[in-house]
Amino acid sequence: MPWIQREIQLPALGPGIHPITEEILRSLPEIAGIQVGLLHVFIQHTSASLTLNENADPDVAGDLCRALDALAPEDFSYRHTVEGKDDMPAHVKVSLTDSGLTIPVANGRLRLGAWQGVFLCEHRRSAHRRSLVLTLQGE
Fold this sequence. Notes:
Blueprint lengths: L3 E6 L6 E4 L1 H7 L8 E8 L4 E7 L4 H13 L15 H10 L3 E7 L2 E2 L5 E7 L8 E8 L1
Antiparallel strand pairs: 1-8, 2-7, 3-5, 3-8, 4-7, 5-6
């Protein structure tokens, strides 16, 4: 199978950690035909990120948000403030999470663990539309 690369736009999501596994799967129906391969998910932004984490209990996402807020608070004395008080903490949070994930594919499915899902982490206070680049290769 040739490489497939697709850019998708997520709906504007407010601050928080949002499950996006289903949006990814809807955007790449070709996964169903892959016996063994890899999916790479990349976010094209510096104030939002991706994480692979537990998708069974929604309290996990809330706890992650609170932990990231404690690690990168808005009231820290940042020098980069030109884009607003929430911008530099967002950059720090992106550095603590990730801008890309690689997920194995087998038998037409993402090989996620029983409790794993892909999440968008929106680190700004207002909702933004975010772009993802999905790259799939397999046979």
